[in-house]
Structure formats: structure tokens, C-alpha cells
Amino acid sequence: MEMSLSGTTLALSPCTVISSEWIFMRRYSNKRILVTGGAGFLGSHLCERLLDEGNEVLCVDNFYTGRRTNITHLLKNPLFEVLRHDICFPLYVEVDEIYNLACPASPVYYQLDPVQTTKTSVHGAINMLGLAKRVKAKILQASTSEVYGDPEVHPQPETYRGNVNVTGIRACYDEGKRCAETLFFDYYRQYKLKIKVARIFNTYGPRMQPDDGRVVSNFVMQAIRGENLTVYGDGSQTRSFCYVDDMIGGLIRLMESSDDFTGPVNIGSPFKNSILEIAERVISITGTKSSISFALLPQDDPIQRQPDISIAKEMLGWSPTVMIEEGLMKTIHYFRELGPGVRGNNYNADCR
Ligand code: NAD
Ligand code: UDP
Fold first, then answer.
1. How far is the CA of 73 from the centre of ligand 1 (A)?
2. How many of the other CB atoms lie within 10 Å of CB of 74?
3. Could you tell me the pTM of the whole model?
């Protein structure tokens, strides 16, 4: 067997294949990067982008809400590795950077097993921070706009301290993420760790689970199946929707920002839409015959949410570029390709 590396041809016997891969990786990779939650919606896009930039990527996931099909196309890349692992347990690997994304993000899924959600956020953060401390890696936390709860300040700047119902059904996620942020800043102050905290606002796009319960995937699948779109409440509640490609760009810029910039920084679309507007747009773009039906607004559902992204603009030179119409069209195209009968992985108690 022969292999050409940068003009050099190596004669390889079958038993030297692994070492040739190692030579390839060491020569062509930039950094060794761990992405927890790498088989999920955002994680799979992040792994893909980091690989495209020539990095070695280790995807760690317990497949609670993630899917193998999100990363199947990456498996042929010798710089990509997958490890089935629950971050609630310690992990010993050697990496330069860690993106900590592991945690269900859909309210339906994070409320299904709220104790596990808190454990993933808190124990998971402790384990990943411990790993970062041991190997002196830079670590980014995927935090959330949910740290602001049902905000009374609008739009929300990073200085706003939030309005979370501590004992409510969303608290497992909101308080878990708030505690994770606290841990990140304590490790920063106590151990001088290089940390980055991104407060991610609602993001949508290809590879969301078709039945994960989030609003964009629900509406698009309902429209494709010819079912009524289920608007909770009267649909006047607002969210700001960021297309996934923009979000990934923001997270990478944050990781690459100077060491003295820790965040927290809001990353999301500064444009808000009511949920009813989103339903109407999906109906209009898909051309479905579906109409809208109204259902009860879930408990503690935030009335409004919109980021102030001044810090992201100033410190990262970042703002989103994909408008909602274009992003929805790409997302609808993706779900159409999957077909109306497709289901996600649903909840599987055996997955942990
Ligand atoms: P997702 O559910 O698609 O992905 C989460 C991934 O984490 C899944 O692959 C899941 O299997 C994995 N996971 C969950 N618990 C785990 C554990 N204990 N150990 C290992 N892996 C585990 O969600 P997403 O939308 O890709 O969100 C990724 C991150 O971004 C989450 O931390 C979420 O809180 C944050 N975030 C996302 C949004 C959004 O709109 N997508 C908004 C705010 C914050
Ligand atoms: N929502 C809705 N219909 C659905 C799913 C969600 O009206 O089928 C609403 C939900 O009540 C919330 C908004 O859409 O007001 C966004 O919900 P999602 O679960 O996507 O995210 P989050 O509430 O965490 O922002």
C-alpha cells in the first residue's frame, strides 16, 4: 500500500496503517478539541466546522437526545472520534480545548428527567472543568438565555440577573445552567482556568430532532405532515431565532477570543418574532393546507426573550447574517428530505 503525504510517498504494510493515520493527524491537525454533546443538534454542526478547519475532534455523547445519524458523515474523517460517555462521570482524555454542549435543550426532554438534567449541568460541568484544569485546556460553556428566566428587562443584557422560578418545572435546566456558570467563574478565579461562557438564545436549523418538541421543528413537521400547527397560549409570546450556522460561528469566535475575555456573552438573533408569526411563516413557506390550533401555554413559559448583542458585536465582531425567512427555508428543506414519517430517537431509558 502507498500513501502520499504532502508530496512524500510512504510505503506501508497493513500493520502500519494506524501509524500513518497518526502521522497524518499530527501533521495536518491544528488542535485536539473535545465537543461534549457532539451528536446533538448544535454539537454535530460544531464538530463538522472544527473538522473543516483541520482540527482533531473528539465527540463525547450519551445519545440521550443526540443521534448517530447527525455525525455518520463525519466518521470517515480520520481526525474525528466518537466516545459514548455520560459527562456526569469523570473523563480522562488529552485535549487543548473543550466545548461543553452536553445537555438536553428542548423543554420536553429536559423536563422528562429533571434530576438527570441538573446532574448533567452541574456534575457534568464539574467533570469537564476538572478535565480542563488537569490538561490546562481552554473551556467553553454552552449556557443559555434561560438563565434570565421569564425576563422583566427587555431586551436582555448580560448584566441582567434574571427572573427564574426556582421551584418551577423549568428550573432543572435554568438553575442547572446558572450553577454551571457559577462553577465556571469559580474555576476561573480559583484556578486561573481559561473559560468562555456563551449565553445561547433560541437556535434552529437542520439536525434538530423532528419530534424534540421545540417550536421550529414542531411547526415544520406539523406543516409537512398536514397537521395543525400547535400554538401554545395565544402565540403572542416572543423569541429571537438564530440560524445554526451563525450560532456555530459565534461559538468559535468566542473560543478564539483573547484569554481575558470570559463572557458571559449573549449569542443569538437580535430580531424577535411572536410564536404566532413563526407559525404563519411556516405555513406560508411550506404552502401547507394546515391551519393553526391553540393549546394551553406551558407553566413558566417566558413571555418575551430577545438578546442585547452589543458585547458580541464589540468583543467578537459577531452578529448573525441569516434572516429568518432564509433559515426557515433551509430548515424546511432538511425536514422534507427526511420525509413526513421520520421520528427522532424519542426517550430511551436505556441510553444512559
Ligand atoms: P441537543 O439536545 O440536540 O444536544 C445535546 C446533546 O447532549 C445530545 O447529543 C445529547 O445526547 C447529549 N447529552 C445530554 N446529556 C448528556 C450527558 N449527560 N452526557 C453526554 N452527553 C449528553 O441540544 P442542542 O440544541 O444541540 O443544545 C446544545 C447545547 O446548547 C446545550 O447545552 C443547550 O443547553 C445549549 N443551548 C441550546 C439552545 C438551542 O436553541 N439549541 C439554546 C440555548 C442553549
Ligand atoms: N411552542 C408552541 N408550540 C409548539 C412548541 C412550542 O407554541 O409546538 C412555544 C412555546 O410555548 C414557547 C415557544 O414556542 O413559547 C418556544 O418554545 P421552545 O420549546 O422551542 O423553546 P423555549 O421555550 O425554551 O424558548
1. 20
2. 19
3. 0.92
**Cα of 40 from ligand 1 centre, angstroms:** 6
Question: Exposed (0-12), middle (13-18) or buried (19+): which is 81, by Cβ within 10 Å?
Answer: middle
The answer as to whether 19 is a domain residue is no
Number of domains within the chain: 1
Return the residue whose CA atom lies nearest to atom 19 of ligand 2: 214
Question: Does the residue 203 lie in any domain?
Answer: yes
346 lies in some domain? no
Name the closest-CA residue to atom 21, ligand 2.
214
Checking phi first, is residue 65 left (phi over 0); if not, alpha (psi -120 to 50) or beta?
alpha
CATH number, residue 228: 3.40.50.720
Cis ω before 90 (30° cut-off from 0):
no
User: Would you say residue 350 lies in a domain?
Assistant: no
Q: How far is the C-alpha of 256 from the C-alpha of 247, rounded, in Å? A: 14
110 is catalytic: no
pLDDT tens-digit readout, 85-136:
999 999 999 999 999 999 999 999 999 999 999 999 999 999 999 999 999 9
